[in-house]
Amino acid sequence: xxxxxxILSFLALTIFAVNSFGEEACLSxxxxxxxxxxxxxxxxxxxxxxxxxxxxxIEGFYEVDIYSRRNGKVFPIYLDCNKEFVISGxxxxxxxxxxxxxxRMRELISKAEEYKKKEKELAKKELxxxxxxxxxxxxxEKVEKxxxxxxxxxxxxxxxxxxxxxxxxxxxxxxxxxxxxxMIIEDPExxxxxVMHNEVLKVVEKRPDIKFEIYLFPLPFHRHAKGIVQNxxxxxxxxxxxxxxxxxxxxxNSKKYKELSKLEKECKKAEKTLKEVDxxxxxxxxxxxxxxxxxxxxxxxxxxxAEDIIxxxxxxxx
Length: 318
Known about the structure:
The chain is an alpha+beta fold. The chain is 42% helix and 22% strand. β4 and β5 form a beta hairpin. The longest helix is centred in the middle third of the chain and has 30 residues, at 109-138.
């Protein structure tokens, strides 16, 4: 039976627009299938997984249970019944003085342990398969060196992808004539991308023989990202494009997000390029930003330190 709550307080909320707003509000929800929830939430899940669904404690929402690989926990998020918005945070029952979300997380502890075990077994099998495939591409000697110098998570989470016929990059950071090329797919409003950007700048300062080809992929739940990307694409020079991106990440790092609106600029000429990058992201099965692609076609989603990037490039290019 659905719990009725007279007063709700949502703490530490993150609201993501999943589709464009337009339908009338619905009052009842019931449940949603796991498969449908996976399909709807795919753009924002990254490495997390939908592992269950349930009736939400408030009308008009579905509960979707998410397993986080990074912290090994299962927690509920709430999808509105029009399937347009996700709310991540606590539902507080003020009348009874309790957090419904935390109580639900306690109920999900056993499920988390079950998925931890499954994920551990699956990760081991996946890593063994990846290593064998990688050895065929770059040789066993280089794979052994990567095991020594790369962060452990790199080999666990890296993917072998196909970047053939990639579109022209939106920006080149570093010497355009540099011998070694690394690709990055990122969003100008993404906090992790802003951290990664600083590491990229450290790399090009230390290693003028490495350049970065940047592909800009505005995530749908970042309100300023698309306008900033349009501005960058339509800028007149590589220098101006890079300056806009630098400024965007400076603002993100300072958490003064409202200032990002100053960098937005609608530009219809950018639509073709946006479509090309979107198709490219789908082709490489992009799961999040930043995604870094090392030659020959090894991708990793997440932040890497400058020294790790340099070490990985050196192993792969020797």
